[in-house]
Amino acid sequence: MGRYVAQRLLHTLVVLFGVALLTFALIHLTPGDPVLVMLGQDATPTELARLRHMLELDQPLYVQFVNYLSRLTTGQLGDSIFQHQPVTRLLAERFPATLELTVAAMIVAIVVGMLSGIISALWPYSAFDVVAMFVALSGVAMPVFWLGMLAILLFSLQLGWLPSFGRGEPLTDAVGAWVRFGDPSDLVDALKHLLMPGITLGAYSAALISRLVRSALLDVLGQDYVRTARAKGLRGFAVIARHALPNALIPVVTVIGLQVGTLLGGAIIAEMIFAWPGIGRLLIQAINQRDYPLVQGIVLLTAVVVSGINLVVDLLYGTINPRVRYG
Amino acid sequence: MADATALTASARLVVAPRSNVGRAWRQLRRNRAALAGLVVIAALVFAAAFAPLLTPYDPYAVALEARLQPPGGAHLLGTDELGRDILARLLFGARVSLWVGLVTVTLAATIGVSGGLLAGYLGGLWDAVIMRLVDVFLAFPVIILAISIVAVRGPGLNNVLIALALVYWTNYARVARSVVLTLREEEYTWAARTLGAGPVRIMVHHLLPNAVAPLVVLASLGMGNAILAEAALSFLGLGIQPPEASWGSMLNYGMQFLRDASFLTTLPGLAIFVTVLGFNLLGDGLRDALDPRLRT
User: Fold this and answer.
1) Residue numbers in B near A148 (CB within 8 A)
2) What ipTM goes with this model?
């Protein structure tokens, strides 16, 4: 197990190095002069030279990369060109909102996906199963932005139940206010704002998880050891909870881990539809302004988060899968 | 003797896939969901191919006096904010979607399969470098990597194709590699090697044909994913640029009229949904028919 952990850590380090290299290379993919692209045709030669110097683009490539790496190790991501602020500060301001949305979507995905997958597997080809699998099939083909618009159309414009855009107080603050002052109004408002974006974003992953849980559990339920457990007189619930589910969930854990990247990516789109003030909107704004240091910072942040989660999932996988644990 | 071995080996390669195709087709025909997917795709190809014949309207003809007309009437599916016929734009948008799907899958598969074959067959340093590269690309959320590539390259069809190919090649690399790893030590590979076949010949003639089944499945699902990703990029204003008709950008512009003219968003969204569903259904069906081991 110790060897496995060391291997995974080393692997993550190598991937992070590659991630840094790719993000670094991004700016050099620009057709033509990146400085000219960022500042536009009207920029004076002095302005161009100043930005080129500021971004170190006047240095040899390897010097640029070494400097970039050494800055990264001290947590510096440079300054945003148009907002005149450190990229790290902008990320610190906006990432919590994205995280809140992503976590909400993840909860929707896991709860809805697992429950419907389990019910479907226990009663395959029942009415519930048929409907759930049809919904899941649709969910995987449904574009996030279209689902979001349909939701706004129905729940905000037609029924007027939920706000169509924006974010309430940060959920953590709202919970704090409720606990300390006993005033739930902020919390209710925050949840109302979060509900539609969270479900919209989580729908795809819920559909995927539901299909996977169903087939994984159906596979396991057909195994000899499950029959043995039943034969020795265990009740249905105990068989499912103690014998079938833990084994069926091993592949599901990996897929749930992979969904973090999907959800972070989808959050960009969900944020655009619901005017959610996270890093997704920041990214699109940065792209439209050609603020490359900010674009690089956001892309790097998402890749580091995904790599971190992958590491956690791999380690978790090691502890729940006996083949790795004792291997 | 050597000739005989070569003959059997090549006979197996020539004959085996053909009978497999027949068997797979028979199985696919019995799968109603997959057939439905196939019908959707056929209808789409038809619509894209004969778009100019299927509608009397020009998808680019602006007619401000006829803007935002609801479905029904002279314009079957209504008109958009510039008075352009929505049915015509949907039909021409199908061309964009199919083209993006086709080119993306071809490019991604070419890059990925080459990488996967090299990694799996040569092993060692090749394998380490290529597969770490795959891991690095997988660390980025798909849509974010695609967005950032388009962001620096600039919007437009060609850059969308490059971005999506760079995002999706990893799937093909992994599948090709895993097939090669299982077959590298098979007797017929050794036989070919003994007969003096070089690495390229072995990879292309002896290993690749065995990877075709899983790759076809991946390609069908990949078409759906690519179409979805292009729609997302165009929705964000980073993909296909106006006035070119793309379902994603139609949604983008339609969103401002969500309250008063919701058909501007529901119709292109429905087109994307049904198309992706079609490719997914076909992909699932192909997986069951071609390669039951891949079933999830």
Assistant:
1) none
2) 0.87
